[in-house]
Each structure stands twice: as structure tokens, then as C-alpha cells.
Amino acid sequence: MTGVILMSDPRVAAVPVADSGERLVDVRRESELLVDGRRHDSAGDFAKVRRGVLDRLLRAEASLPQGFRLLFVEGYRPPALQRRYFEDYAARLCAAHPEWSAEQLRSAASRYVSPPELAPHSAGAAVDLTLADADGHELDLGTRMNATPEESSGACYTQAGNISEEARRHRDLLGAALSTAGLVNYPTEWWHWSYGDRYWAMATGAECALHGPTEPEP
Ligand SMILES: C[C@@H](N)C(=O)N[C@H](C)C(=O)O
Ligand SMILES: [Zn+2]
Asked: Ligand 1 atom closest to Cα of 85?
């Protein structure tokens, strides 16, 4: 797929951050969003995002046609966890492609996990989410959430052609609601959306990112 700017692209790292200082909020406490427990952690970090991100998610949900809900899966990710995800996936790619250079590995890994120093989730600015029906049952968006490009034959790419018509309708519905509310998608992952991070700033032309990586709150 051409035209996709990866998280490892120097244009993303070049975006300056002027952190707004906005607090992380727990979406389970501050909203009626449906929250899935598959990424649950004892500190509840997975359910947190910056306030402005939650406000936009609520706007997006309100704009969905009747019978559709957002299903929130993962928001904030502490930098140490992000580093582990990145290194584990890069090690898997390295085992499969020992001939790749360090730069090739970093770029390929960033199709699926952001390099830790740039990570939108560690800024509390990104959310992995999908659609559910009115009863909270997860809908078909073409792949499982967090399917790698390898296991899904590229069907995890938001604009992939190798998904059913129904999954395409669902992806388009999710995308229309979230982009109208101001979030930006990472084009290699239909479920990953962000607001205020470096990738968002690069994609929207904002002068700087509003949120940089932050350590977990005590
Ligand atoms: C690992 C996957 N769920 C994810 O969040 N990927 C993006 C690119 C990230 O790490 O920010
Ligand atoms: Zn994500």
C-alpha cells in the first residue's frame, strides 16, 4: 500500500511537542462509553486518555447512527510497556528476516507498534477501539483488533480491499464518526485513532503536538 506515512518516518519525530498538561481521565468514571476488559491492568491505565481525547470520543459516539456504539479497548500505555511491545515485535520480525538492517526492522515494526519515544498511546492521546451493536456485542470490522500485517495478509490496513462488504461498511462508519470529531487514524491499523499527538500534528498540519509521552500517575 503506497502513501502511508509510518510512525518511524522522520517527519513524525520532527514535530515539536508543547505539552498541554491536560490530565489523564478514566473513561469508565467520566463517561458511559463501553469499555472492554481485554487490555485490563491493575492500575487501570488502559482505560485512561487525555480529557480532550475523551471529549472527542463522546462527540464521535453521539454522531453514530442508532444501534451503533463505540467499544473502547486501550488508551494510555506506560512508556515501559510500549517499549516491551516494540522490542518483542521487532524481535519476532528479526527472527523471520535476519537479513534486514536495523533501519528496515524499525520501519517494519512501526507498521504495527510505535517506537516508544514517539508513542501516541504513551502520550494518552491514542485509543484502540471498535464498534459494537446496541447490546454491546462487538461487530465485524474485518480482522481481530491488533491483528498484525503478517497474520491478516494486510487486512489490518484501514483501506484494505480483502475484507467483506459488511466489514467495510463498519470501518467506514467508525472512520466517519472519529474523523469528523477530529481524530486521526493510523492507516496500518483500522482500530488506532489519536488526537493531539505527534502523528496527529503531522497529519493535520498542526504546528506542534499537544501531548507528549508521560509516566503513569501515582
Ligand atoms: C500495538 C497496537 N495496538 C498499537 O497500538 N499500535 C500503534 C501503532 C502504537 O503502538 O501506537
Ligand atoms: Zn493503538
From this structure: 1
Distance CA 109, CA 171 (A): 24
Cell numbers for 5: 506515512
| Distance in angstroms (rounded) separating the CA atoms of residues 126 and 200 | 10
Q: How far apart are CA 104 and CA 51, in angstroms?
A: 36
Q: Which residues of 183-204 are buried (b: 16+ CB within 10 A; e: fewer)?
A: bbbbbbbbbbbbbbbbbbbbbe
* Residue 214 forms part of a structural domain: no
Question: In angstroms, what is the span from residue 193 Cα to ligand 2's centroid?
Answer: 7
Which residues are known to be catalytic?
A: 189
Question: Considering the domain boundaries, does residue 218 fall inside one?
Answer: no
Q: Are the C-beta atoms of 22 and 50 separated by less than 8 Å?
A: yes
Q: What is the DSSP letter of 209?
A: B
What confidence tens digit (pLDDT) does each residue in 60-101 have? Answer: 999 999 999 999 999 999 999 999 999 999 999 999 999 999
Using CA atoms, how far apart are residues 88 and 32, in angstroms rounded to an integer? 34
Domain membership flag for residue 83: yes
DSSP result, 90-113: HHHHHHH-TT--HHHHHHHHTTTS
CA-CA distance, 202 to 140, in Å (whole number)? 30
Name the residues around ion ligand 2, CB cutoff 5 A. Answer: 126, 128, 192
Residue 104 falls inside a structural domain = yes
Q: Enter the C-alpha cell of residue 28.
A: 469508565
ipTM over 0.85: yes
